[in-house]
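Recall the central idea of this unit: under ordinary conditions, the amino acid sequence of a chain determines the structure it adopts. In this exercise we apply that idea directly, starting from the sequence alone.
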Amino acid sequence: MRKLKLQVQMSVDGFICGPHGEMDWMIWNWDMALQDYVKNLTDTADCVVLGRKLAEGFIPHWASVAANPDTPEQAVGKLFTEIAKVVFTKTLEIAAWPNTVLAKGDLVNEITSLKKQEGKDIMVYGGASFVSALIKNRLIDEFHLFMNPAALGKGMPIFYDLETKLNLTLVKATSFECGMVVLHYVPKEV
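Accordingly, the structure predicted from this sequence is:
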């Protein structure tokens, strides 16, 4: 069965953005080792799942990057433009983006169905309420938490909907020259 892998940038105090969606604290000048980590992680997947709110910025951003031959991130932009995307929504009626389908049913059933399909693993990028629902329902198989060297004090967490404790097993912790540390966890077997 395919795995659902979360890749998300976080502050050291556990927020994925500030209280008003601020992301100006995130490190974007990634060193080559971190870029390679992301490429290797992304190469294991052939599908991306997103919540509608994030999709509305994520998909057009990467399409713009893909269309710009002068950007060093063009290859990543092409990857995110060409990869299959599933956007979870209750409001959209049609997918306005290429290689994108809408998921409008029950979250657990939709994700379980995706995991049972043939193919590589599935990446999830968020946003906060969507990822929180995935965590609450124990649907994420791997956590790749990109810890930025910043504390926000307030913001949007992804673990706030947990109704019971979630134990995790550390697979690997990797530090990078740019100041980021990636913590790779899997849910602990009970």
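The beta strands are 4-11, 15-17, 45-51, 84-88, 100-103, 121-126, 142-148, 156-157, 168-175, 181-187.
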